[in-house]
Amino acid sequence: MIPRALAHALTRRATWLLLGAGTLAGALWARHRHDVRLQRNVDLASLGLKVGGTYASTAARKVFADAERRIELDAERELKTAEAISERLGNMKGALMKLGQMASYVDEGLPGPLREALAQLQSNAPPMSSDLAAEVIERELGCEPDRLFVEWDPQPLASASIGQVHRAVVVDQQTGLERAVAVKVQYPGVDQAIAADLRNADLFGAILKQGFGGLDPDEMVAEIKARISDELDYSLEARNQTVFADHYRGHPFIHVPEVLPTLSTRRVLTTELVTGHTWSEALTWDQQQRDQIGETLFRFVFRSLYGMHLFNGDPHPGNYLFHGDGKVTFFDYGLVKQFSDDEMHTFVSMVRTAAYEHDVSAFRTILERAGMLRPGAPVPDPEVGEYFSQFYESVREDRIVTWSGEYASRIVRHTFDRTSPISQYATVPKAFVFIQRINLGLYALLGELRATGNYRRMAEELWPFVQGPPSTPMAEAEQPWLRAVSSRGRPPAPTPR
Question: Which DSSP state fits 49?
Answer without folding.
Answer: -
